[in-house]
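ok so I'm stuck.
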Amino acid sequence: MKSPPFEIEFESAPQLESYATDYPLIFLSCCKAAGSNETCLDKLTGGSISRARAQSQRFCGRSGQLLDVSGFEAKGKLGRIVLLGTERSASAEAGVSVDGEDDAADLDLKTDFISEIFSEGARVFSRAHAIGVSSALWVYDGVRSKDFTARPAYVSEGALSALLSSYRFDDYRTEDEHGDRVLRLRKLVLSVSGMRYSMDALETEMARRRAECAGIFLARDLVNEPPNELPPQEFASRISSMSSASSSLRVEVLDESALESAGFRALLAVARASEHDARVVIMHYEPQELPKGSPASSSSLPPLVFVGKGVTFDSGGLSLKPAKSMEDMKMDMGGAAAVVGALCAISQLGTKHGFNRACVGIVGLVENMPGGNAQRPGDIVRTLSGKTVEVLNTDAEGRLLLADLLWYAQERFSPCAMIDLATLTGAMIVALGEEYAGYFSNDEGLASRLLSCSSSSGEKIWRLPLAQAYDSQIDSPIADMKNIGGGGAGSITAAQFLQRFIKDGKISEKSSEKSSKKKDVSEASSATKWAHIDIAGVTWAAKARLGRPQGGSGFGVRLLTSLARDFSD
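replied:
not stuck anymore, here's the structure
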């Protein structure tokens, strides 16, 4: 498991006169008007900052702007200062409060606000990496109109972004690294001016971010691995090794024989043409040493369950994908990678950081290949639930293995809520591109919680409908259902398919009309609270972007970790 290649440290309002001599590079958060720290550094550098501002035609301290200041004489190591614009419009700050809880009136504004903070950390790392220094100081100044930077959650968000930006997948490079891939940065110190909370609170918040970073790095590594190096058995073995790192995590592996005995017929139908046997892995996070005043022991509370699609390579089966559509299909296990990464983060943090609810992660690991033993278009398969599916397209395989996994999770664990993540449909990429994941839910309370956690984690999701009009498109004349719908709304009909394997989970048209109201509108009290998140567009980046490398993104780790924390309250 990778660790960030450099350390993040914090200092509370240092004396810049002395600190300026210790670092070759200083980043200074700033707005349109110069603050006290900028005035101090300007004096130390003989007015270089004010001259650079005056000469610049464009820099005005707006969010996203950078201004390099160099060529000055200063004591010690200092040779360059980078002004980091942080001033935002009033609308960007509207969804976030200074004290206490954030204003939930507009979660989109809050998400955009967090995304801007995230981008600041990415810019800091990118510029420090380009300059090639071994250490840098970031004066994270509380200079905005509402002093948002004084809040630990936002300070640590910028720090996390810098850490995540350092990710590289170089495991299969045989040549010596050179050029812009060499990382010289070893330490980034954040000086937090105007802190309105204790440094202990900041360190606690940062501990969560470091655990999230470890989980995201793990998920990215898994998605980036070539499929010949990560077949289902190897994937399961890597998950099993996680249990040795945490006493609160227990891993259980079901091999193909156990899956056959249990009745995972739909999952095994997907895997049967591959030379690599299928696996199902169950990760149990069991809270240790619950704090005093906890309402009940962990064993008496139903667990929160995450389910991940893990197709380690998807050729499409006999419904073979075009060559160009197949080359990135090692990423079709992105849902499983996110679940594994989230359980990694949750088990690292444990009850010390408020994770008091038992969590279970279940991943189905298969390879979908053509061959003489492959399932055929026109086959009918009986699922673990007993329901039958007419398979019209073998490239719509993810929903088949999820059908068995979702039923198994409910039968065995009776979860308080169940969330599945899957790179399920190309239609989701058409609908939402690479910016948002689409999500569906049969429960308004769970849907609301997910949206709130999405806002705070910066991992964007957008809700799509479930309705009978779409559900009827997957009716089959010779089986209980077929595995594809009509020509349109492919992501929705896929979600409708999954919903048929949720116990009492269907919502009526009348319920759907109430989706704007934050109430539990499940038809029956025995309904499993369920959400499906289609991450097809956000799991893999064809090109690198600021703070996000080319390849696996690790999307979902922070969202699930945040949700697990929310269910512990």
